[in-house]
Specification:
The chain is of the alpha/beta class. It folds into two domains: about 190 residues, P-loop containing nucleotide triphosphate hydrolases (Rossmann fold), CATH 3.40.50; about 260 residues, no CATH class. Helix 3 packs across helix 4 and helix 8 crosses helix 18. InterPro entries: DUF3482 (IPR021871), GTP-bd (IPR006073), P-loop_NTPase (IPR027417).
Length: about 475
């Protein structure tokens, strides 16, 4: 068993203004409200502590520091101070008047590193050119005689100067480096960061190893929880069933309003599922609402009930091109991606009815108009919704907690996912016969165990989908450069 953590490892997060220090800490601690992130220099003005907790206990205590603003002048000033060693000169500076006047911000950084930290993470915006002031920053930090681990940020940016920065760091004898994009972290980058830190803090290796193991378990737990949330939303939609009288159904306006209301109910389930997924990943509710996801919003509002999209989804399910096609009085229902059935007969779809041709369909409709009608959601709609939710989970797994712009998901997925999507739809079929499984619906006689079994089966298939490309290693498109 791992030894209990008695004291947190203390890490000062340092670097030049706007390098992404606060953004890094938001992502590492999954606290979206920590500090202030804004597109202007000098946002952080005071040193502020934040903890990474393992099993409720502070394992790492980070100190977010202000940006170094005038490092060249400070380097020259430090070189003139008395002292036999560089750390002594830094201490002399912190005790002098300049630490409260000209170099107040720099003093906050050096005091946090010298007096309150076991090591430093030097966050570097690799988009910046290697200027003399940045070289001066690196040298000043090494004067504190504390291990310094550079964290290369924004390395995915097209204008990244990663190789130039790596060369400078090697020249400064900083050989332990880690690449970490605070906006869209690499898969596993968080665990590698702590693993590399262990090479600098030999006495803390065991504790850092335990942190890495904990993060791996936590990541797996989040994925399982997210799959259960997505599965629950899909069960809600699969179980959804709405009734309309034959008289109202025969009136086009009322039928149209009824279908629109059903669409809105499906959208409400989708939005609630998104909100619950955001909670799983510790994002704010508004961070990825449907309105903030342009491509997904378009699909939910249009494509989930769009005839062409339904046809394509129907092909993936092996239903041919008939899904979304309709004739006569039920054309609008078919195009809505809904199934039509009598109250005593479930499971018949417009697509299936159309396979018999025009006249058989019309006779079935005419017979059913004599009683109460029920509408349920077609399988292709479930397939599209399942695909979108899986893509969202995969994107949230790779989204940093400092990201401020819109999250854009890939517009397609690999063909190999189709079989797994079909398995998801098959696992959802028991919900068709249990309208009481829809959350918010009038309770029925179904047992909770039956719903839980279906939920677990669907969640298991969603986990399989998440293990397939393009989610692993594919980066969601982010158009911002938060700090």
């Amino acid at each position: 068993m791992p030894e209990p953590i008695t004291a947190p490892i203390r890490v000062a997060v340092v670097g030049h203004t706007n390098a992404g220090k606060t953004s890094l800490l938001r992502t590492l601690t999954r606290q979206v409200d920590f500090g202030e992130v804004a597109d202007r220099p000098g946002t952080t003005r005071h040193a502020e502590a934040i903890d990474l907790k393992v099993e409720g206990v502070a394992a790492v205590r980070f100190t977010d520091t202000p940006g170094l603003e005038d490092s060249v002048a400070l380097q020259e000033y430090l070189s003139r101070l008395p002292g036999e060693s560089r750390p002594e000169r830094v201490r002399a500076f912190l005790q002098g008047p300049e630490a409260r006047e000209s170099f107040e911000q720099e003093a906050k950084v050096l005091r946090a590193l010298l007096e309150q930290a076991d090591a430093a993470m030097l966050v570097i915006d690799t988009r910046e050119p290697v200027l003399p002031k940045y070289r001066a920053e690196i040298e000043i930090l090494t004067w504190c005689a504390k291990p310094v681990m550079p964290v290369l940020n924004f390395v995915r940016a097209p204008n990244s100067r990663r190789e130039e920065w790596q060369k400078v760091l090697l020249e400064s004898n900083l050989h332990a480096q880690v690449e970490f994009d605070a906006v869209a972290p690499f898969v596993g980058a968080e665990r590698r960061l702590y693993g590399d830190l262990a090479t600098l803090l030999h006495g803390k290796r065991q504790q850092l190893s335990e942190i890495v193991e904990y993060l791996a378990r936590e990541s797996a737990d989040r994925r399982r929880a997210a799959c259960r949330v997505a599965a629950s939303g899909l069960v809600d939609v699969a179980a959804l069933r709405r009734q309309i009288s034959a008289e109202d159904f025969s009136i086009e306006l009322r039928r149209t309003e009824f279908v629109r209301a059903l669409h809105e109910d499906v959208g409400a389930h989708a939005r609630r599922t998104v909100d619950e997924l955001l909670q799983v990943f510790a994002f704010r509710r508004g961070d990825a609402e449907v309105a903030r996801l342009p491509q997904m919003a378009a699909r939910w509002e249009d494509d989930l009930f769009n005839s062409e999209t339904l046809r394509e989804a129907g092909k993936k399910l092996g239903l041919g091109a008939m899904i979304g096609a309709g004739v006569g009085a039920v054309a609008d229902v078919a195009l809505a991606g809904l199934s039509l059935g009598a109250a005593t007969t479930l499971g018949a779809t417009i697509g299936g009815a159309l396979s018999g041709g025009w006249k058989p369909l019309w006779r079935k409709l005419e017979n059913r108009l004599n009683g109460v009608q029920e509408l349920t959601v077609e399988d292709p709609v479930l397939l599209l919704l399942a695909d979108h939710l899986v893509q969202l989970v995969g994107a949230l797994e790779q989204r940093g907690h400092a990201a401020m712009d819109k999250l854009r998901l890939p517009s397609h997925r690999a063909d190999g996912a189709n079989n797994a999507l079909r398995e998801v739809i098959n696992a959802l079929q028991p919900a068709r016969g249990h309208p009481g499984w829809e959350r918010g619906a009038k309770p029925g006689r179904e047992t909770d165990n039956d719903r839980k079994e279906t939920l677990q089966a669907v969640a298991s298939h969603l986990e399989i989908l998440l293990s397939k490309p393009p989610l692993e290693g594919k980066v969601p498109e982010l158009s911002s450069t938060p700090l």
